[in-house]
Write a structure and sequence with these properties.
One of its GO terms (cellular component) is cytoplasm. This protein has 313 residues and is an alpha/beta fold. The chain is built from eight helices and eleven strands.
């Protein structure tokens, strides 16, 4: 679809969101998140709670009271609730149902692919009669491709764990740490082909912890030529702007109060400086198979709005 067919200066959207109902470090219920998006005049919202991790050593410290079965059931309950809200609020907001990935090596690719299978059965706790519930499972319409761990160590949970990754994975070299991050991100993007890429440079989140430990004068954080090559390679896999790549907006909200976080005139100025003329939002497809040559994915279609016409609060 051409941009001229989809111009609408009232469009506002995000495809990366969480709620305290299904994420321990977020706040509010999933319905409160949806209601907040409606109150702030969002026209489209992607729900993207974390996928369930599948080994006990992948649990975050805040999840010590949970089991792998708990995470699987929580995820199934999330998708069921997302489908309920999608129907309940369909006349007020376009909701698309997705999830945010984790990555622990190549095995994660198969796991992620299985999660979005259209005929996947619901999980029931180990020891149940069949191990699955035959109730039809709602469709996963899109994926946010994100990397939160390096060799099993969380890089976004705390400075302490970030420094552990710095020592254990980076061997005391922040450049090596970044190389591993972008290499694993490349494997994730290539293997999963997510519709949306989440926080591309998450590895920078706690970089100041390394600077404080080593010293600002020793670690300034400028990317070397090799690191820039890895960044460019990963962007090329997604498809850079010149090759038809599409830009969207997301806030990675962690509760109703975060909806539209940093959606302000500064963001609009940034888009202009970067030469981003159009941004894209997702709508559900009537048919799961895209027609030839369309700007579509399997279950969602990308439509554009001029960046200059976006109205942020």
């Amino acid at each position: 679809m051409s941009s001229s067919e989809s111009l609408d200066n009232t469009k506002l959207f995000s495809y990366h969101s969480h709620s305290g109902q299904f994420c321990n470090h977020a706040k509010g219920t999933l319905e409160q998140v949806v209601q907040a998006a409606i109150d702030r005049r969002f026209t489209s919202l992607g729900l993207s709670e974390h996928m369930p991790r599948y080994k006990p050593d992948q649990l975050y410290p805040e999840e010590a009271h949970l089991t792998i079965d708990d995470l699987q059931l929580l995820f199934d309950n999330y998708v069921t609730e997302a489908a309920r809200l999608q129907e309940k609020y369909k006349d007020q907001i376009e909701i698309v149902i997705g999830f945010e990935t984790e990555y622990f090596g190549h095995e994660s690719i198969t796991y992620i692919q299985n999660l979005r299978q259209p005929h996947r059965k619901r999980f029931t706790p180990t020891g149940a009669a069949s191990g699955h519930d035959d109730t039809p499972f709602p469709t996963i319409q899109y994926i946010v491709g994100s990397l939160h761990h390096l060799r099993g160590i969380p890089i976004d949970f705390s400075k302490e764990l970030y420094l552990k990754a710095f020592e254990d994975v980076g061997k005391g070299s922040w450049q090596t740490l970044f190389e591993v991050y972008f290499d694993e991100q490349f494997q994730l993007i290539r293997g999963v082909q997510p519709e949306v890429i989440g926080h591309f440079d998450l590895i920078r989140l706690f970089f100041d912890a390394i600077q404080q430990q080593v010293g600002d004068s020793q670690v300034r954080g400028e990317l070397s030529g090799k690191l820039w090559e890895l960044v460019q390679r990963n962007i090329d896999v997604v498809a850079i702007k010149a090759a038809g790549g599409r830009f969207t907006l997301s806030d990675d909200s962690h509760g109703p109060d975060d909806i539209g976080m940093f959606y302000d005139p500064k963001l609009k100025d940034y888009l202009e400086r970067m030469g981003i003329d159009e941004v894209y939002y997702l709508v559900a497809r009537d048919s799961p198979q895209p027609p030839s040559g369309s700007e579509s994915f399997k279950h969602v279609q990308a439509k554009s709005v001029l960046a200059k016409n976006l109205r942020f609060r």
